[in-house]
Amino acid sequence: MTDVVVPKWGATMDEATIVQWLKNVGDRIAEDEPIAEMETDKATAEIVSPAAGTVVELLVPQDADVVVGQVIARIEEGTP
User: Fold this and answer.
1) Which parts of the sequence belong to the Lipoyl-binding domain (predicted)?
2) Which residue ranges form the domains of the chain, and what is each CATH number?
3) Count of H helices and E strands in the chain?
4) Is 26 exposed, middle or buried (0-12, 13-18, 19+ CB in 10 A)?
5) What does the pLDDT read at residue 14?
6) What is the pLDDT of residue 12?
C-alpha cells in the first residue's frame, strides 16, 4: 500500500485545499499520473501518484483543507 501525501510546494506553504479529485476509489492509476488538484494561496496544481496501481481510499473530501505531509489517499500497487 502506498500513501499519497500533500507535497510542499514552497518555503511558506503549510496548507492547501483539495479542489477536485481526478480519480475515484477503484480507478487504475499510473505512477506520476494526476490524482487530485490542490490549491494554495498562490497557485493551483496537480498532485501526482507516487506509484502505479488502484486507488483504494480517498481520505479527505473535495474542498477539504489539508496540511503538508498529510496522507490524502492510498494506492494498492500493481500495474495499471
Assistant:
1) 1-76
2) 2-77 (2.40.50.100)
3) 0, 8
4) exposed
5) 76
6) 61
Looking at residue 56, what is its pLDDT?
Answer: 96
Q: How far, in Å, CA of 45 to CA of 77, rounded?
A: 24
Those residues of the chain that have pLDDT short of 50 are 80
Q: What is the pTM (predicted TM-score) of this model?
A: 0.84
| Structure-block grid coordinates of residue 65 | 483543507
**Contact call for residues 55 and 75 (beta carbons, < 8 A):** yes
Count other Cβ atoms within 10 Å, centred on residue 31.
Answer: 14
Phi-psi region at 69: left, alpha or beta (left = phi > 0; alpha = psi -120 to 50): left
State residue 40's pLDDT score. Answer: 82
